[in-house]
Amino acid sequence: MEAIALAEIRDTPLSVDEVLTAVAHPRAGGTAFFVGTVRDHDRGRGVTALSYSAHPTAGQRMREVMEKVVADAGEGALHRVAALHRVGDLAVGDLAVVVAAAASHREEAFAACRRLVDDIKAEVPIWKHQTFTGGDSEWVGAC
Fold it and tell me: Per DSSP, what are the bridge partners of residue 117?
C-alpha cells in the first residue's frame, strides 16, 4: 500500500525525525504522532530492566495491521502512515515505539494514529520482559 511509508521492527534506536520525514506529504494538513518510551515503573513497582522480543512474523503482521487501518479510513483519507518498534534491551527513557499518521485534517490523523498504536499493541506478536526493583520479573503480552 502506497500510504505505508515505514513499517519496521528494529534492534537499534528509533528516530522521531525519520518517522516525521517518512510521513511528510504535500496534501497533509495534520500529522499525529505517538512516541512510547520506557518508563521507570509499572503498576506501582520500580522497573530496572526491560527487553522486547518479537516473533519472526512481527514485521509482516505490523504491515497488515497498518494496511487495515489505511483501508478502513477510506480511500485517500490517510496520506502516509509509519510505525517503528524496537526490540532488544532498552533503558529507561529509550524510545520503544514511534507511530505517525498524516492526513488532510487533524481529526483523521489523530484517529488513525490512536488506532495504529492500539492495533499494533493488540495484534503484533511483540512481547515485553521487565525486571523490577525487587528482582522479580514478568512477561507482558506473552501467551
Answer: none
